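#structure-requests
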Amino acid sequence: MPFTVTMPKLSPTMEEGAVARWHKKEGEFVKAGELLVEIATDKATVEHTALDEGWLRRQLAQPGQSIRVNQPIAVMSAVKDENIDNYQPEAIELNFPQTEQREELLEVAKPSSDKKQTMTQVAMAAPVHIPEPPLQHYEHPYPSEAPAERILASPLAKQMAKKMGLDLRTVKGSGPGGRITTHDLEKAQPEGIVTFGRVEAPHVNPGSFKEIPLSPMRKAIARRLQESKSYIPHFYVKQIIHVDHLVALRDQLLNLGLKVSYNDLVIRGAALALRQHPRINVGFHSLNQSLIQYETVDISVPVNLEDGLITPIIRHADFKNVGQIAAEIKVLAQRAREGSLKEHEYKGGSFCVSNLGMYGITEFTAVINPPQAAILAVGAIEQRPIIKSDAVVPGQTMSVTLSADHRVIDGALAAQFLKTLQHILENPVSLTL
């Protein structure tokens, strides 16, 4: 009897996946529990084993093809040569909100006079995503064939240019229709001389483009960040930190053979600051309209991947020294790039530290990753003139910016947290205690 293999739901946030690699070919027998296919989810590439044994008769999804959860990806049969020509693969209907439902949902979410409080809670608990209107008219009219390269010049100008060894392509004509005249020749450059990096025009029409489908991970990032900026009231608090002592501490650790990065030191500092300010170590439960008070300091650290990013987590970061944090980040980052992180290694976290300093970026603001209520953006260390004892002296500074969810964090709390972090990083011996 034929049966359908559907796209499995391999993470709580997964709505679709892409086949990364089939481990079985059509016509091969698959045992229950045997590796069947690798699935690229919104978080990582996960191996999926067969739930039932049988013969793999038809692969319905090709590598790289995105398929929604519970939709068919293959047909199997219990008998090797069973006829499956008339078999229709079965799909399970999902309850993802569709665009055409948004008007109905908006109508339901409107508070009536007698149910104003209840309906407001419903609207806030499940905000309706109204997508932006689709971009139309991607293509713009342009000749299908690029015009042949032709120099518009008067016959006399061409004759004189040839005699004088001038390159007519290096001058713009002042005559009718841009035609080069003899008066323009005095601005022309001699032939054979490199003139301001002139290159041949490309053989591609202006405005040419190609559409590239997003991977499941990139789609999840796009959806999640759009929702974050749409529904979370961000506010930002910035602090300049003098890090001369922090630089000296790292140099001393390196001299002792302890390889740590500035990011490792900042994560340790943030963890200690969160211990002192637990009201920053919080989240927001949009369904219940309640504050989530995390009882442990678990810091998410974004790792850049080829097609997006993922945030492995340093658990109990305030109880780990700098060396432990450095070693753990190195291992987690490597496994993230290999796509081998376990769900508990990237799901959760109470706070996030995002650092672009290694790219030379001095300052930026980050987008909150819900349900967390705050994220710290860390810039590069740079030399600046600073004032000490009424004198201008050279110093090294770092800019940090806290993005906070104003529903559960107020400006004063954010300011107090950043001042504590500043004190820790400007007195970095505390990071070694």
